[in-house]
Design goal:
The chain is of the alpha/beta class and 379 residues long. It has two domains: 21-262, Type I PLP-dependent aspartate aminotransferase-like (Major domain) (Aspartate Aminotransferase, domain 2), CATH 3.40.640; 265-366, Aspartate Aminotransferase, domain 1 (Alpha-Beta Complex), CATH 3.90.1150. It has helices at residues 20-24, 35-51, 68-79, 93-104, 122-131, 153-162, 211-214, 228-238, 247-262, 265-287, 315-324, 350-366; strands spanning 9-10, 59-65, 85-90, 108-113, 137-141, 143-144, 149-150, 166-170, 189-193, 204-210, 302-306, 327-328, 330-331, 339-343. A seven-stranded mixed β-sheet has the order 2-10-9-8-5-3-4, sandwiched between helices. Strand 13 (330-331) and strand 14 form a beta hairpin. The longest helix is centred in the C-terminal third of the chain and has 23 residues, at 265-287. The two termini are 40 Å apart. It binds pyridoxal-5'-phosphate (PLP).
Length: 379
């Protein structure tokens, strides 16, 4: 594997540890109208489609400046018609963010909300679409990074197709590491970003849109900067972004895509992340830590662990002591339980995970917490 640099290792949901070669790819100045840059953007767009297992005939990839949320906002604000209605399927903070974006945009919404440790009900989604003909679009997060749960994209896509509604997937933390054929899963719009499983650096997000509905969205945009159709038109006409592109980030992304290819594409990357996950979870269980989710619904991207039920455990101190050992974990985001998160993604392999495990053992000893933990975590 290409070496990461000497920085702290990030076991986070992103930005992530990236390879030295990805960072080095940015050590150039390339004009936004330069032929090489235009070709780079063209290549990136084509490769994004191949990761989604679709072709240019039916889908198009559109990079958009800004973080993942900007990409989500671009799709919501410019692909839903003025009289459209969005069904948001929620089981975590990122589903809630979609609801928030839509409500700020004054888009009519319906919500199906589930506990953070449960999958959405397919039956209820089916019934809601059958009973509310005003709903035009359905949105769901594929890997809800709040907990790490894998939501049923294929099944929800089938329900949307059956009811002839458009399906929008936030695949921020799964695209590139969880195989997904957009056409087979009836995904009309997908959004992800540069600094997640493709292992680039932050600076842009991208949408992959099915052309048939997307090409009818001209004029729907509720803002100039987020106009996805306008962005697409610019890219198609002269290969350029409408406004200043993140040139360095795109160069890093091109290198990250090469490294994804070298690793065996999505399948190869999935295998490394799964190995990280399995190494992590078995060692954490051995120490007596408990996962927030049941294993059947837990994905291999990021795992939420409950705080140990021990008077000496203090997350801030645990975090700080790990950080001093160059191991960066992540606070929890679950609303009803005290958890912390450990990510398995980025340029890390099982040797990094084993180093983290060793550091956790040391820190627990320093904090005078005996392992294995004996008390069940408080709920
Ligand atoms: C599923 C999901 N959606 C949306 C976002 C927001 O992305 P950003 O923080 O890049 O705006 C994230 C970030 O981790 C995410 O995991």
């Amino acid at each position: 594997m290409t070496k990461p640099s000497a920085d702290k290792i990030l076991f986070t949901p992103g930005p992530l540890t990236t390879s030295l070669s990805v960072k080095e790819a940015m050590l150039r100045d390339l004009g936004s109208r330069d032929f090489e840059f235009i070709q780079t953007v063209r290549d990136i767009r084509a490769q994004l489609l191949s990761i989604g297992e679709v072709s240019e005939e039916t889908y198009t990839a559109i990079p958009m400046q800004g973080s993942g949320t900007f990409g989500l906002e671009a799709v919501l604000s410019s692909c839903i018609p003025p009289d459209g209605k969005l069904l948001v399927v929620i089981n975590g903070a990122y589903g809630k963010r979609i609801e928030k974006i839509a409500s700020v945009l004054k888009i009519d919404i319906a919500v199906l909300e589930y506990p953070e440790n449960e999958l959405p009900s397919l039956e209820e989604i089916d019934k809601t679409l059958a009973s509310d003909p005003a709903i035009t679009h359905v949105e769901m997060v594929s890997c809800e990074t709040t907990t790490g749960i894998f939501n049923p994209v294929r099944e929800v896509g089938e329900i949307c197709a059956k009811h002839d509604r458009l399906f929008f997937v936030d695949a921020m933390s799964s695209f590139g590491a969880v195989p997904l054929n957009l056409a087979e899963c009836h995904v009309d719009y997908l959004v992800s970003s540069a600094n997640k499983c493709i292992e680039g650096v932050p600076g842009f997000s991208f949408a992959i849109a099915r052309k048939e509905p997307f090409l009818k969205t001209e004029g729907f945009a509720r803002s100039l900067s987020f106009d996805l159709y306008g962005q697409w038109k610019g890219l198609e006409s002269n290969g350029q972004f409408r406004f200043t592109p993140p040139t360095h980030t795109l160069l890093a992304f091109r290198q990250a895509l090469r490294e994804l290819d070298e690793e065996g594409g999505v399948t190869g990357r999935a295998a490394r992340y799964k190995a990280n996950y399995e190494t992590l979870v078995s060692a954490m269980r051995e120490m007596g830590f408990e996962e927030y989710l049941q294993p059947e619904i837990q994905g291999y991207i990021i795992t939420s662990f409950r705080y140990p039920n021990h008077p000496q455990f203090d997350f801030e101190e645990f975090y700080r002591r790990l950080n001093e050992r160059d191991q960066v974990i992540y606070p929890g985001k679950v609303s009803n339980a005290d958890c912390f998160r450990i990510g398995n993604i980025g340029r890390i392999d099982t040797s990094h995970v084993k180093t983290l495990i060793g550091a956790i053992r040391e820190v627990m000893t320093e904090m005078k917490i005996d392992l294995p933990l004996t008390a069940a975590p408080s709920r």
